[in-house]
Amino acid sequence: MWLWTVGFALVAYVTYKLTSLSRLPPGPKGLPILGNALDIPLNGLFLKLDAWKQDHGEIYALNAAGQKILVLTTAKAAADVLDRISGSCSDRPKFIMMGEYMTGGLMVSTLSHGDRWRRMRRIVHEGFNIRAAEAYYSMQEEEAGRLVRVLLEQPRVELGVVRQRAAASIIWRALYDAPSLFQSQQVEERVNHMNEILDALLSSAMPLAYMVELIPALRYVPTSLAKWKQYGERFFKDTDEFFENLYKEGKESKGDGSKAKGFAASTEEACKEFGVSQQEAAWTAGTLFGAGAETTVGAVHFFCLAMLLHPEAMKTAQKQIDEVCGKNPPTFKDRERLPYLQALLRETMRWRPSVPASIPHVACEDFHYKEWVIPKGTMCIGNIWSINRDPEFFPEPEKFRPERYLDEKGQLRPSLPGYHDDILAYGHGRRICPGRDFANNTVYVEMAYLLWAFDIEKAKDANGKDIVPNDMDFSDKGLTVYVHLRILLYRVVLTSCPGTRRNSQQCSSPGRKTCLNSCPLSDGRAEK
Ligand code: HEM
To answer: Is 433 annotated as a binding residue?
Structure first.
């Protein structure tokens, strides 16, 4: 009898598995064995996923040489799967080289959904939730002021480079309570080293970078025979030392009473409460820099692009800023009275999300969605680019229209029904970006200061004609994208000194210095 029972259970299990496998939604046809692997591009994946949406709709499946991938392309499908059954699909893909050898399983963004990830994520939440993020307001205003000053003082400076430094400086100071990158050579060197670490990690995650990803058994090759293992272990040791030193210094910094402590110092109690070791906390901080710098730069970059292509939106925002702030630079206190600027931020992040395809989630168990059964191990990608173009939520999605977020009185409309806010650029579910409030603050204050101080105009070619950037010529940095800087040529034209933008003449170089001495930015506020 028991033989029958076991046999029956086995048949039921195998049938269930087989039907599970065959119940993924249909998707583009692929080759035998390789499936769609050869059709999945290394660059511009989000555009390909969006193109497939035209034929396969809101949810479809791909097969990359055996790896099943579920693609979600509408706001509703992404919310149904990634938010509402988040517990079933909150793992991350496993990268042996990056996740294990190079980072010792300590990078919160790549960790599996488990105890360590949960504890590390708790301290990120403590340090960067919506309330905690307020503690950084004055530092963010200070850095935005510096961004404007550098652009004022060095008329030929490359805006992209300065912005990159400003965003790096903001997140660095928030993490380690260090001096501004604009003021400290040591911070600059450390930030450069941090960027080298991130580049190395990103390259290690590229397909075919390391054979061990394809043939996991290679991990059992003795270290003395495997150069890649030696490199990975050395990289981990050096990076671990670097992160822990930064963290220790940051922890010792207690702020000066008026400004916020950095993440390292302010989360000391939370680390004790949630059982997070010093090493785990140090790696969390290092990972946050990686997650928070490029992404924010990307968002402000696309804002500049939007201003070049939609000067009418720039003028409307400037008019409101002038009315509300006058001669003083905009602050966080003014934000509620600047609904158009807030709408501009939402529309920029919708129109050109700097992370256009979310980091893949992975199903930690089989789960059901509609008539489909999604097997454990399936990668689930919310294609943010497509989600942000869902016509049900965003009519005429290709149009850049900040007004879509405003009511007839020009005030912000309530958030999208069923969503915590209007910005869908931060991913979903349990893996949603934990730095989103801090990021929104950085982007807001940089946009506000840039618009308050400058007009952003297209550069001219040799014949004096406007150079119009191609807003679809993307350069892909793995997770973040930019419109190619080669063609994003713009100049920031100072039509007046800040605060009186409307009246003054364009400054000449020596006059600019004089102007700076009397402008509100040099009253000590920006250089505290
Ligand atoms: C405009 C700026 C930013 C954008 C567009 C952005 C976007 C995203 C997206 C799309 C994800 C993946 C979410 C998912 O898997 O569903 C993510 C994850 C993450 N972000 Fe952000 N982010 C930004 C800024 C920041 C900042 C400033 C921080 C840190 C203070 C941060 C920390 C993280 C971390 C740690 C994760 C991984 C979460 C996890 O795996 O549990 N991000 N972000």
So the answer is: yes
What φ, ψ does residue 493 adopt, rounded to 5°?
-100, 120
- Here the ipTM equals 0.99
Task: Specify the pLDDT at position 504.
Answer: 38
How far is Cα 363 from Cα 374, in angstroms, rounded to an integer?
8
Strands 59-64 and 367-369: unpaired
Q: Are strands 455-458 and 490-493 parallel, antiparallel or unpaired?
A: antiparallel
CA-nearest of 283, 335, 4 to 141 is 335
Distances in Å between the Cα of 210 and the Cα atoms of 64, 91, 217, 227, 258 are 17, 22, 13, 11, 49
| Residue nearest atom 16 of ligand 1, based on CA coordinates | 427
**What CATH number labels 2-494?**
1.10.630.10
Please name the helix (run of DSSP H) or strand (run of DSSP E) that holds residue 309, with its range, or none.
helix 278-309
What is the rounded CA–CA span in Å between residue 485 and residue 17? Answer: 49
- Which residue's C-alpha comes closest to atom 24 of ligand 1? 292
Residue nearest to atom 25 of ligand 1 (CA): 292
Using a 6 Å CB cutoff, which residues line ligand 1?
108-109, 121, 124, 128, 171, 287-288, 291-292, 295-296, 299, 354-355, 358-359, 361, 425-428, 431-435, 438-439, 443
User: 20: which residues sit within 8 A by CB, 6+ positions away?
Assistant: 366, 373, 375
61: phi > 0 → left, psi -120 to 50 → alpha, else beta; which?
Answer: beta
Give the other-Cβ count within 10 Å of 435's Cβ: 22
Strands (E), 308-393: 361-362, 367-369, 372-374, 379-382
Query: What does the pLDDT look like over 75-125, one tens digit per residue?
Result: 999 999 999 999 999 999 999 999 999 999 999 999 999 999 999 999 999
pLDDT in tens, 30-82: 999 999 999 999 889 999 999 999 999 999 999 999 999 999 999 999 999 99
